[in-house]
Design a protein that fits this description.
Layout: E1 3-8, E2 14-19, H1 25-33, H2 37-48, H3 52-71, H4 89-102, E3 107-112, H5 131-134, E4 139-144
Parallel strand pairs: 3-4
Antiparallel strand pairs: 1-2
Helix pairs in contact: 1-2, 1-3, 2-3
GO molecular function, one term: GTPase activity
InterPro entries: GTPase_ArgK, P-loop_NTPase
Protein name: GTPase
């Protein structure tokens, strides 16, 4: 099923985008909860996006996930790592992530640099600093813009 979403751009012209089954929040939530990395990527994009239709979809997606989580017990851990440039954040994250993966668990790294006004930021620059982790099917590494 496909539906069209129309909105006006800043200059007043009409912008059309199409919502397909791949954009269906229930489907994204189901895939996300089953560990699908593509669904994780799509979910993060929806949450980070400044587009109004993405905002609405993100709210619906978060609601779907919340409803699912109430019925399931998930064991998740979130860790925040910060520090000045050159102190070994990337090295530490790669080693910690590799240890987690070696035990059979999955890991996701969302790298954000709130101080980077030039690039929009990634605390780790890019995935090339964590080649082992970024290459693993058990890991998801994503540089994200700040703000």
């Amino acid at each position: 099923m496909m539906s069209m979403i129309c909105r006006r751009t800043r200059n007043g012209s009409l912008f059309r985008s199409y919502s397909t089954a791949s954009n269906d929040t229930k489907l994204i939530a189901q895939k996300l909860m089953s560990g699908n990395r593509g669904a994780l990527s799509r979910a993060i994009t929806l949450v980070e996006s400044k587009l109004h239709n993405h905002y609405l979809m993100a709210r619906q997606l978060l609601s779907e996930i919340s409803n699912t989580r109430q019925n399931n017990t998930l064991n998740t851990v979130r860790i925040g790592i910060s520090g000045p440039p050159g102190v070994g954040k990337s090295t530490f994250i790669e080693e910690l992530g590799s240890q987690i993966i070696s035990k059979g668990d999955k890991v996701a790294v969302l790298a954000v640099d709130p101080s980077s006004t030039i690039t929009g930021g990634s605390i780790l620059g890019d995935k090339t600093r964590m080649t082992e982790l970024a290459g693993s099917e058990m890991a998801y590494v994503r540089p994200s813009p700040s703000g």
